[in-house]
User: Fold these one by one.
Assistant:
Number 1:
Amino acid sequence: MSREVLNAINVCLDVYSIFISLIIVISIFSIKKIENSAKWFAITNLIAVFYGFSDIFKRISDGTDLAWKLFTLPASSFLYYCLGSLLFLFYIRYVIEYYSQFEKLSKIWWYFCVGTIIVYNIFTILSPFTGFFFRIDENNIYHRGKFFALCIGIELLLYLEVLLLVIKFHRKISNAENIGFASFIFCPFICQIIQIANYGISLNSLGLTISFFIIYINMNTQLKNRLQNTESQLNVLDNKKTNLLNNTIINLSELIEHKDTVSKHTKRITKYARLIAKTCKKNGLYDNIIDKNFIEIISKTAAFHDIGNVVVPHPIITKPMKVTPEEYEIIKNHAEVGSNMVNDVLAVGFEREFIEMACDICKYHHERWDGKGYPQKLKGKEIPLSARIVALADVFDALVTPRCYKNTVSFEEAFHIIDNESGKQFDPELVMEFLKIKNKLIEITDTYSDSSIED
């Protein structure tokens, strides 16, 4: 195979290697926050880009007496060896930085690398004058130097250092990562052996590119796994935060509504509302509105329905008889006050859909199907579905559990009252679904009765 053909092949291999290394460099530095070890790996690939260019200039300048090539061949040959040593320097620094996250490494590893590279470069500096690693003959043709084998020997020492580090830490990292680090040892080394046996073809850059690409794939996999773990941890923290805020408001609602007694009214309302919504979904009622997300949200936001009672004076809340018209007007204020409170409290940390449903429930759960409710006298389907569901649950609980101003009624009587209010106070379609689940509603009432002991 002619020198021209070999040079063309080598240039193509170098261009391919440069292209891959550039992709790796750009990809790593495009990440806003990267680990220190990743920076060293990116710098290693940046050096590999210049290493590839130096080899290209060495190839295209070889064997010609053009003036500029008489300069570029020795210069590019010199840079080729220098940059080759820097590849080891920065790669080993990357390996040391990576393993340092598991164990503090002795500085001897770094000092050995730096010392070896210094010796290597001293010989490289001498080469243009002595032909130590390489020489340029009178025809401007590159040849390996008389001590080229020493160059290979020094590289073997650096490969050995990487191998020892891999062996030392192989149990602390995944098999894929071990393969990545080991690829830097074997891919370039195997290419080096092939290159020695087949003088004229240059596979160094290709060997490095293969190993760097394997490492880069592993790095991306590790980054993806860390991002997934971080996302999972953030979801856990977000759920804890949501539950904390949710439980705080539930407990606050209980305290506001029942200042002097222990009650599980809020707990029951959330259970009733969830059951009604699930029954509607099962039977296809309002299937354009009620989905899994709607059910999950209403089972939490129903608890906020009477939080606005904080503005109602305590004597009115606990009055053991019917309130006066004036007192009733004061009570009616709690709907809008509660909506505003919930909007302000949930503004940080909750999705807009969650906030909107909570506000709707607070504001509209005293509206009536016939338009005679408050605060805005909405009627029919003008009333948000979530508020219509909670209104039904709230009245049922008020009927079957004790209040300071009334006695309880039996379950059958409660169901009868609600049935009679179908199309008046309540959504008639919701009432139909409500009456289908009498036994489950009774079970919730008994399970979360004010006299029960909650786990």
Number 2:
Amino acid sequence: MKWKKVLAPVLGAALLIPGMGTTALANENSPTETTGVELRATLDSLLSEHYALAVDSMMKVYDGDKAAEAAVAALDANAADMEPVIASVYGEEGGAAFVEIFDMHNMGTDDYAAAVKDGDEAMQEEALVEIQSFVDDMGAFLGTATEGNLPEDGATAALRQHEDYVQDTFDLYVAGEYEAAYTSYLEGFTQIFEAGSAISGAISVQFPDQFSDPNTPAGDFRSTVNRIAAEHFALAQLSMTKGYNGSEDFDFADWAQDQNTEEFRAALASVYGEEASKQFVKLWNNEHISVQSDLSSAAAADDQSAVEEATNTLTSTFATDLGTFLNSATEDRMPLDETIAGVQAHETSVVDTFQQYVAGDYAASYETYRTGYAIMFDIGKGLSGAIVDQFPESFKNTAPEKMPATGLGGTAGQSNTMILWITLSTMILLAAGTITYRQTKNQQ
């Protein structure tokens, strides 16, 4: 395809946030809400949801899960939502070209999962060719679209890495090597956020009058909060459905959630010592993660009383306690009623996605999944904005000048992860004596 013929840049007034029915109105006075950071957050949301749905749909296709068709449809809907975002930058033809290429990828991954299930080696090879064609074509598209600010070779290599994470996660799952599969899943989830950083960075260099630098300390911080929150939501759904179905990999889906908790615990220990970190882990595991597990077990046992108890704990008690904590910790930067409502909306989406799956209403379940996934980015925006406003000295941009992106990989997120842990840990101390901290890591 002749990319240069369709990629005449057309900048939209605002970027559509998929699933939210609103536009991203940038606030250049807030370092977490600039035009560049909003662009990065939009790409982070779409690309990471694609990754989560790709792995989920492949697992369901292979397992013969009745929700497989709905999972594939959700993956396709995610691709469709990318079109207006790309079109807002590169025009309608550019958006259509992008989605045409992306659809090739979705088709290839679905075909690969079905071929593995059927033991059809010829179809497997054909699917892998489709996927490699996606890698080559999308790399060329990105290189041309960004006028070389995102070099084609770098884009192609990173896209190949993304595909490897998806395929390796699935192949390891099929082989029953569940710990390795979920390790690959977590690594791939982190890698896809690097793509959002690089693509938005290249666009901001290409159109400096329309987009500010997205890769500032505050932009990195918001992306990190978003990643943790979104990863939590995706893992919660995997774990709960695996538990309900009695899947062999259930313990390892739970193990993946434990890796998130351990990452936070280690950071807390490095700042406040082992005792403080152990207290956090006890609260986190016993008052949030375990309640989701209780809900899954109760649904499997058809114990409606226990289902209602777990649901009430998550959507009422937990939402109120965490909302109150965040309001106090951020010194009213997160308004009490709005924060409680935000946490409640998240918990409701988790419960409803799972319950609709249990009821066999798979289309509704994935619609709720997509809404719930988008909510995590609203929570990430609110929390990161409040913390950056509260601790502005920690997020000053010391870079002397904007540098163009050189590829999809890199180390941009390494230092800001520790900033995340330190600032959130500080929030815990601010609320010392009233630690009802049920969720600080993946929830936000």
